[in-house]
Amino acid sequence: MGKVNNNNNGRRYSSEIGMGTRKEKTAEAVFGSMKNVNVQPTVFLTASGNTAPRFDMNRTFYLPEDTPIDAFVLRLVAVDDEGDVLTYSISGSDAHYFNLDSRSGNVTLKQRVNYEDTTIMFLDAQVTDGKSVPVEMGITIIVEDRNNNKPIFQNEPYFTDVPENTAIGSSIYTVLAVDMDSGNSGRVSYSIEEVNPNDAENHDLFYIHYNGTVFLNGSLSYNNKSTFYRIKIFARDNGGLLHGQFIYQNNTAYLSVTVVDVADLDPVFLGAPYSGSVPENCPLGTSVVKVQAIDQDKNVNDIIDYSIISE
């Protein structure tokens, strides 16, 4: 739409305004004939800011304790909208266990880990595009146990004295083996591998309970059987993974059993039967016969008393 106006000075001007959307304005000043034209252009400024990178990855990872040095552990992954080159870093009290490729984000194992010492580890991961403030994210690494420990017998060596009249089924000693692994890998079972003197009867003379208690399974005799036994005890865990294979760890210990003699045998007369004679007129106190008895218990020095029992 155009419009022409006249004023008292005989000046004429024209203006054009675009309707609906904003359009560029044009002003024309006319003084009889055109003397001067000024055009001021509109300037549009566009501001463009850098976007910081962001992590795009899990926060929790699992690390078996038998992982070898230099093995791959995890990869730091971040994205940047502008496609800038990213640089990674790690820090924290557990960072010394790992090596990091700052460009690829690959984290490898630098130092062996031990589940019995450390079950969980923490890392602070950082990423930067060189333009923005570094972005941080916490990472949790859970150390997984492996069957890398064997049962260890406690308080060795094992010795015990057992009276020869100990009842069958009595407990005579308890051993203990400790496995530092967790779960089934740390549960220990026991068995008797050998008994010396090594013969069939002695092998069954003892048995061992699941808790390490050794029981007497037969009779002892200081005089008629062995006075000493050496029991070989085998301890084994319930198995577990190690370097990708299911294995069992075991150990052995020895229990020395000394049989103690007790007064369980009657004295025996030597040279029996006895007979004697005396004159009818012998005085009182005259010796008629001398008897002698010995104790069958070899290591018991009991005093033998004699008496006459009339029949």
Automatic annotation (TrEMBL):
<dbReference type="InterPro" id="IPR050971">
    <property type="entry name" value="Cadherin-domain_protein"/>
</dbReference>
<keyword id="KW-0106">Calcium</keyword>
<dbReference type="GO" id="GO:0005911">
    <property type="term" value="C:cell-cell junction"/>
</dbReference>
<protein>
    <submittedName>
        <fullName>Cadherin-related family member 2 isoform X2</fullName>
    </submittedName>
</protein>
<dbReference type="GO" id="GO:0007156">
    <property type="term" value="P:homophilic cell adhesion via plasma membrane adhesion molecules"/>
</dbReference>
<dbReference type="GO" id="GO:0016020">
    <property type="term" value="C:membrane"/>
</dbReference>
<feature type="domain" description="Cadherin">
    <location>
        <begin position="154"/>
        <end position="269"/>
    </location>
</feature>
<dbReference type="InterPro" id="IPR015919">
    <property type="entry name" value="Cadherin-like_sf"/>
</dbReference>
<dbReference type="GO" id="GO:0005509">
    <property type="term" value="F:calcium ion binding"/>
</dbReference>
<keyword id="KW-0472">Membrane</keyword>
<keyword id="KW-0677">Repeat</keyword>
<feature type="domain" description="Cadherin">
    <location>
        <begin position="55"/>
        <end position="153"/>
    </location>
</feature>
<keyword id="KW-1133">Transmembrane helix</keyword>
<keyword id="KW-0812">Transmembrane</keyword>
<dbReference type="InterPro" id="IPR002126">
    <property type="entry name" value="Cadherin-like_dom"/>
</dbReference>
<dbReference type="Pfam" id="PF00028">
    <property type="entry name" value="Cadherin"/>
</dbReference>
<keyword id="KW-0130">Cell adhesion</keyword>
